[in-house]
Design a protein that fits this description.
It is a single chain. This protein has one domain (12-77). The longest helix has 6 residues, at 12-17. It has a 4-stranded antiparallel β-sheet, with no helix packed on it. The protein is 11% helix and 28% strand. By secondary structure, it is mainly beta. The chain contains 2 helices and 4 strands. Strand 2 and strand 3 form a beta hairpin.
């Protein structure tokens, strides 16, 4: 699943829907753990909907109803994990 960075700030309501706690909401405005993913639909974004655009693809919130078609997006909360795999050395 491809994750796209946000070019616009998510609203407080959107952050609440993603499960942010009041403590997290009172922190810094930038939330690096929010990205956007494709919904699989194309359409003309209505005001407030998220769409994919740009030479370097990013998620934008439509400032008003747009006349052109774009790939539609939805916001997701992501958590980064580091996984370490230990492989035995066959030459020992």
């Amino acid at each position: 699943m491809k994750l796209y960075p946000l070019a616009d700030w998510p609203t407080l309501t959107e952050k609440r829907k993603l499960g942010f706690t009041p403590e997290e909401l009172s922190g810094a405005r930038q939330q690096p753990d929010i990205c956007a993913v494709l919904t699989g639909q194309k359409g003309r974004p209505k005001r407030g909907e998220w769409y994919l655009s740009g030479a370097i693809p990013q998620a934008y919130r439509a400032p008003n109803d747009l006349p052109m078609e774009f790939h539609m997006l939805r916001l997701v909360r992501v958590k980064e994990r580091t996984v370490t795999t230990i492989i035995s050395d066959p030459f020992k």
